[in-house]
Amino acid sequence: MRASASRSATCLPSVVQLTEEFGIASVTAPKVHRALRTERRIRTEPGMGSFVSKKQ
């Protein structure tokens, strides 16, 4: 994860980056993002990326 320069939120790697960096299957990475969004642990902003959600 990396800190976004324009935001205080932490940006998650893209689905492609996850598959390349960790060697996971290309069908697994989107499932990870989907599960994290469902649990409201991340939020995805089109064209910007996925970011760690603030604690509630």
Question: Could you please describe the fold and organization of this structure?
Answer:
By secondary structure, this protein is α+β, with helices and mostly antiparallel strands. It has helices spanning 15-22, 28-38, and strands at residues 2-3, 10-11, 42-45, 49-52. It has a single domain (2-52), classed as Arc Repressor Mutant, subunit A (Orthogonal Bundle). The protein has 2 helices and 4 strands; from the N terminus they run ββααββ. The strands form 2 sheets. Strands 1-2 form a two-stranded antiparallel sheet. A hairpin with a 3-residue loop joins strand 3 (42-45) and strand 4 (49-52). The longest helix is centred in the middle third of the chain and has 11 residues, at 28-38. It is globular, with a radius of gyration of 11 Å. This is GntR family transcriptional regulator. InterPro entries: WH-like_DNA-bd_sf (IPR036388), WH_DNA-bd_sf (IPR036390).
SSE order and pairing:
Elements: E1 2-3, E2 10-11, H1 15-22, H2 28-38, E3 42-45, E4 49-52
Antiparallel strand pairs: 1-2, 3-4
Helix pairs in contact: 1-2
Concise structural overview:
The chain has 56 residues and is α+β, with helices and mostly antiparallel strands. The protein contains 2 helices and 4 strands.
